[in-house]
Amino acid sequence: MTHEAAGVPTTRNDDDRQDNDRQQEQHEQRAPRGDADAGSAADAARPEARLAKAVRAAEQALIEFEIAVETFRVEVENFSRLHHQKLGPMYARLDELDAQIAEARAARTGDPEDLRRAREARALVMPMPGIDELFHDWLDSDGLSPEAAAMLTEQPVRPPKRVRPTEEARKLYRELARSAHPDLAQDETERARRDEFITRVNAAYGRGDEALLKELAQEWAAGPVPQQAELSESEELYARLNWLTQRKELLTVLAQELEEGAIGAMLRMAPDDPDRLLDEIAEQLLGEVAQREAELAGLVQ
């Protein structure tokens, strides 16, 4: 019969032996893990590993920056098209009224200065078109604009309905851009596949086509599994980091041009609801048209 069975309490020596046994087991369990941790720490401490980590971080930062620039570019292009389509006729009407007012005033006074102003006002209404004006709104960063492509194929023109795509479309675009970005390719074949796919994603996002973006997301999910990046040599990593830096500088210039342009400046006036800004401008122009018409009526009576 054992001591425990007889109800005899264990001695201090028994406790010490049990403590020693537990400490030995814990030491044996920790030893392999400690060796593995030490190995991992040593790998992480290698200069190439630290550089590879920096390159991956720079890649992700660049992708996020490109997404931000592209979304703003789409808003600028959409705003420009809608501005031209919705407000262009009002601007043309104002120019015509200004010319008629100047002509009516010149006819009434006969003053040479009024005659000169009338000629200048009329020239603004019917200017001689330049090459850039002949192709205005026919080309964008992706080639032919949707309006131009529709006209050439005798299809009805479908302008963007809003400046900023829906929140769901924006979310789909960001997810696709992050996962399928060409900068994540490990070889030229994969880069070409991603380039072609992202071109389609950008076009769908530019039109605000949420349904097509969902189809593209399903297509990408069903495609080849991207290869995991392998540790490169330090020279290749430095070259990659240098390329990312140059790409970032080019995107910074593009972003600055977009922000400093006339359309970009207008968008900054209503960053939360740019579509509403168009309606407000339209109301202001309608008021100006009414004022010009009243002024003209007073001159021709």
> What's the SSE pattern?
HHHHHEEHHHHHHH
CA radius of gyration is 34 Å
Strand order, biggest sheet?
A: 1-2
The backbone outline, from C-alpha atoms, is elongated
For the record, give the distance between the C-alpha atoms at the N and C termini, rounded to a whole number: 129 Å
Uncertain runs with pLDDT below 50, 5 residues or more? Answer: 1-18, 27-31, 131-139
Beta fraction: under 5%
Could you give a short account of the major beta sheet? 2 strands, antiparallel
**SS element count, helices:** 12
Helix content: over 70%
Quick check: average pLDDT?
Answer: 76
Number of strands: 2
Task: Kindly name the structural category.
Answer: mainly alpha
Protein architecture, described:
By secondary structure, this protein is an all-alpha fold. It is built from twelve helices and two strands, in the order αααααββααααααα. It has helices at 3-6, 12-45, 47-109, 112-125, 131-134, 146-152, 167-180, 188-206, 210-221, 234-260, 262-269, 274-300; strands at 139-140, 143-144. A two-stranded antiparallel sheet has the order 1-2. Mean pLDDT is 76; it is low at 1-18, 27-31 and 131-139.
Key terms for this structure?
about 300 residues, mainly alpha, disordered N terminus
Describe the structure concisely.
The protein has helices spanning 3-6, 12-45, 47-109, 112-125, 131-134, 146-152, 167-180, 188-206, 210-221, 234-260, 262-269, 274-300; strands at residues 139-140, 143-144.
List the helices and strands and how they pair.
Layout (H helix, E strand, L loop, with lengths): L2 H4 L5 H34 L1 H63 L2 H14 L5 H4 L4 E2 L2 E2 L1 H7 L14 H14 L7 H19 L3 H12 L12 H27 L1 H8 L4 H27 L1
Antiparallel strand pairs: 1-2
